[in-house]
Design a protein that fits this description.
The complex is a heterodimer of chains A (131) and B (393). By secondary structure, chain A is mainly beta. Chain A has 1 helix and 9 strands. Chain A has a 6-stranded mixed sheet with strand order 6-5-4-8-9-7. Chain A has a 3-stranded antiparallel sheet with strand order 2-1-3. With 393 residues, chain B is an alpha/beta fold. Chain B has one domain: Thiolase/Chalcone synthase (Peroxisomal Thiolase, Chain A, domain 1), CATH 3.40.47.10. Chain B has 13 helices and 11 strands. Classes of the chains: A mainly beta (131), B alpha/beta (393).
């Protein structure tokens, strides 16, 4: 899907895609480069020949932390994931204890629901393991 | 990111800090952030025989007042010719010093006041920040800024094998300096065992890796070198001449940091040192923004005191502690002295007081060349000042 500069609404369109079950990234058609978060122009070049492309969902954990909560609240992880397409995103790894998340793990995106809104999450890729 | 260029023509040694003061460090219940900033400003002006009405260049940024430049002017009934309320986070005040030097050198103002104050501990009991997470990041509920620094630290440990004992050296050195500073907030002994057993906040950052949450205010007065020499003669003070000032910003949120283990201090530092015409090996003391222990290691590397990845071994053996080879954060830093939110101005006050020979029991003997370095956001905005005594001109 291609959008002209005058009609693009980055945040609104991103979350509409997410709500319909698609994790979409923006790419500049001239440079071929992906970026995140969504914007009205490609960083540095300012190119506005942008298109939305569905992400592969493949990524690798680049950095990880456990946000320690006081019981009865539960500690949880927050990660930075490097996507196969290039951009880095903040997210959470589901299906693992928070302190079992390791840098270098291969992960796969999935769209969950939190506070009645769609949220981008990741889980261990089926091939699993470290990079 | 901009490479240093031959066109970088900073007015080296043309301006100087002549007054540098703090006020209300620790807890100051019943005073607003502006009350505190004004009190520190009056102390700094009084040191050099000036009154608020003589201030014609005002530089300020409070955590809870978006228009604090206007509020400050109104509070003291002054009409500055230059009012700068720039906000780059905790590095703002070092960028203020750069602009103040350029403004004084260009004749746009004569007496520049740089001020900060916060009552965050008494009023809120936690860090007061105007940063808000974006819609893309808010759902993950990362505690900020601590979680952002934890992510950077996790990556640094992964790449360079940094040990917690090495981070602990930073915390212990800061505490030992604080024990020499009667104004420091945390002065009880801190052992490596205490450090290693301290509670995790956001792994791998523990509570003893984090800066304090205090009240406090700081202010400095900057004038031309000629006026500084006159004030020095009249009042018997030693000016801290500004030899170089470099700034660089490369992101806001940690997710967009180009390289989690290298900050834009590489650029701000290189330019500031080039302007000053000095090398890190000539520096007598370093005052840098230690919001978290990893900051000290990153900035020592990025400013050129050691190579990337070697910061952990560099700080070992008490090298940055009292009596060590390179005194770092001689007031006790944000970790043990004071941290009222945007700490940057305190690096400038301490650097100036060291050069003025006013630092008491923590005085670095023969301090002639001192670096002050500020950090804003989530390792986002870096600003480096090189300050020197008359002998460095």
């Amino acid at each position: 899907m291609t959008t002209s500069p005058s009609t693009i609404h980055p945040e609104q369109e991103y979350f509409e895609h997410l709500a319909s079950g698609r994790f979409m990234l923006q790419r500049s058609r001239s440079s071929g480069k992906f970026f995140f978060y969504p914007r009205v122009a490609e960083p540095v070049t300012g190119a506005q020949d942008l298109e939305w492309v569905e992400a592969s969902g493949d990524g690798v954990v680049h950095a990880t932390t456990v946000v320690r909560a006081k019981p009865p609240q539960v500690s949880f992880n927050v990660v930075l994931v490097d996507l196969a397409e290039g951009p880095r995103v903040m997210s959470r790894i589901e299906g693992l204890p928070p302190d079992a998340v390791r840098i270098g793990m291969h992960v796969t995106a999935r769209i969950g629901v939190q506070d009645e809104a769609p949220i981008l999450l990741f889980e261990l890729a089926s091939r699993g393991g470290a990079a | 990111m901009t490479a240093p260029t031959a066109a970088d023509r900073f007015p080296r040694g043309k301006t100087a800090i002549v007054g540098a003061a703090t006020f209300g460090m620790g807890e100051s219940p019943g005073l607003s952030s502006m009350d505190l900033a004004v009190s520190a400003s009056l102390a700094a002006l009084r040191d050099v025989g000036l009154t608020p009405g003589e201030v014609d260049g005002l530089f300020i940024g409070l955590p809870d007042d978006f228009l604090s430049g206007l509020t400050f002017a109104e509070y003291l009934g002054i009409q500055p010719r230059v009012t700068d309320n720039n906000r780059t986070g905790g590095s703002a005040f070092l960028t203020h010093a750069m602009w103040a030097a350029l403004a004084i050198d260009a004749g746009q103002c004569e007496v520049a006041l740089i001020a900060y104050g916060s009552n965050q501990r008494s009023a809120a009991g936690k860090l007061v920040s105007s940063m808000r997470p974006t819609a893309y990041e808010a759902p993950y509920k990362l505690g900020r800024p601590v979680g952002a620094y934890a992510l950077a630290l996790s990556r640094y440990m992964h790449e360079y094998g940094l040990k917690r004992e090495q981070l602990g050296e930073v915390a212990l050195a800061a505490r030992r300096w604080a024990q020499l500073n009667p104004d420091a907030y945390m002065r009880e002994p801190l052992t490596m065992d205490d450090y290693l057993r301290s509670r995790m906040v956001c792994d791998p950052v523990s509570v003893r890796d984090c800066c304090l949450v205090t009240d406090g205010a700081a202010a400095v007065v900057m004038v031309s070198a000629e006026r500084a020499r006159r004030i020095a003669q009249e009042r018997g003070v030693r000016p801290a001449f500004l030899l170089g000032a470099g700034t660089s910003t490369d992101h806001r949120d940690i997710t967009s940091m180009p390289d989690l283990t290298t900050t834009a201090a590489v650029h701000s530092g290189r330019r500031a040192f080039a302007q000053a015409g000095v090398k890190p090996s000539e520096v007598d003391a370093v005052e840098l923004y230690d919001a978290f222990t990893i900051n000290t290691i990153l900035f020592l590397e990025d400013l050129g005191f050691c190579k990337k990845g070697e910061g952990g071994s560099f700080v070992q053996g008490g090298r940055i502690a009292p009596g060590g080879e390179l005194p770092v954060n001689t007031n006790g830093g944000g970790l043990s002295c004071v941290h009222p939110g945007m700490y940057g101005l305190f690096t400038m006050v301490e650097a100036s007081q060291q050069l003025m020979g006013m630092a008491g029991a923590r005085q670095v003997p023969g301090a002639e060349l001192v670096v002050a370095h500020g950090n804003g956001g989530e390792l986002s905005s870096q600003a480096t000042l090189i300050l020197g005594s008359e002998s460095t001109l």
